[in-house]
């Protein structure tokens, strides 16, 4: 057997083994496993009650920071998430909870937040807190938010991240969904995560 043939056989064998044993998963979202802390918070729900991750334990959680007066990004993102979840097999739909955290507690009262969240589906949970607590939470996930100067009528915009953090059933950070993903791609990632759990 020539050296060239032997080298070719070895190369093919290595590639075949890599294909068999490679454990790198392919996601549409950015894989953040091990890069972000697990899901942890203590926020105020739409009924004024304290809400923690334990209230949705066992579910895949989608964490999104926004505000109800958001003119376009928030409603578009929440609509896309609802569509993606609705494309999942029926058994998986109830296992996905969207945590919509308002970073505008001055305007987003529990009642207003509850009405807004429910518009996007039964599995969207509206949450908020005082600004210092929100600052700590966004810092935990390496993001931030800010307030523009109010106009003559007191209206102001809030700058915030448009990314969605995805946590698995155990609360571990798994994916970051950035703008530009289709609802099909988001749904595929969620379905894969549901199967992995």
Feature tags:
globular, two-stranded antiparallel ribbon, single chain, 197 residues, 8-stranded mixed sheet, alpha+beta, disordered N terminus, 6 helices
Please write out the topology.
Layout: H1 3-21, E1 30-31, E2 43-45, E3 50-51, E4 60-66, H2 73-86, H3 90-93, E5 96-102, H4 110-119, E6 124-128, H5 131-140, E7 145-147, E8 158-160, E9 164-167, E10 173-177, H6 183-196
Parallel strand pairs: 4-5, 5-6
Antiparallel strand pairs: 1-10, 2-3, 2-6, 4-9, 7-8, 9-10
Helix pairs in contact: 2-6
Explain the overall architecture.
Helix content is 36%, strand content 21%. The chain contains six helices and ten strands. The strands form two sheets. The protein has an eight-stranded mixed sheet with strand order 1-10-9-4-5-6-2-3, with helices on both faces.
**What is the 3D form?**
globular
**Between the first and last Cα atoms, what is the distance in angstroms?**
48 Å
* Total number of strands: 10
Average pLDDT works out at 89
Unreliable residue runs = 1-23
Helicity level, as a percent range?
25-40%
The total count of helices amounts to: 6
Fraction in beta strands: 15-25%
Structural class: alpha+beta
- The Cα radius of gyration reads 21 Å
SSE string:
HEEEEHHEHEHEEEEH
Order of strands across the main sheet = 1-10-9-4-5-6-2-3
Q: State the major sheet.
A: 8 strands, mixed
Brief sketch in words of this structure:
This protein is 36% helix and 21% strand.
């Amino acid at each position: 057997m020539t050296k060239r043939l032997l080298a070719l056989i070895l190369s093919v064998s290595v590639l075949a083994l890599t294909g068999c044993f490679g454990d790198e998963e392919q996601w549409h979202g950015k894989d953040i496993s091990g890069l972000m802390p697990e899901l942890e918070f203590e926020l105020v729900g739409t009924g004024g009650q304290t809400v923690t991750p334990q209230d949705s334990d066992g579910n895949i959680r989608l964490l999104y920071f926004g505000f109800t007066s958001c003119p376009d990004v928030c409603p578009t993102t929440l609509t896309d998430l609802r569509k993606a979840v609705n494309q999942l097999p029926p058994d998986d739909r109830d296992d996905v909870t969207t945590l919509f955290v308002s970073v505008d507690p001055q305007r987003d009262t529990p009642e207003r937040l509850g009405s807004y969240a429910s518009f996007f589906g039964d599995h969207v949970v509206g949450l908020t807190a005082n600004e210092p607590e929100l600052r700590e939470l966004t810092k935990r996930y390496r993001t931030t938010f800010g307030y523009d100067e109010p106009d003559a009528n007191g209206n102001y915009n809030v700058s915030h991240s448009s990314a969605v953090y995805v946590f698995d059933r155990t609360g571990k950070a798994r994916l970051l969904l950035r703008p530009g993903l289709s609802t099909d791609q988001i749904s595929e990632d969620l379905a894969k995560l549901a199967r992995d759990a």
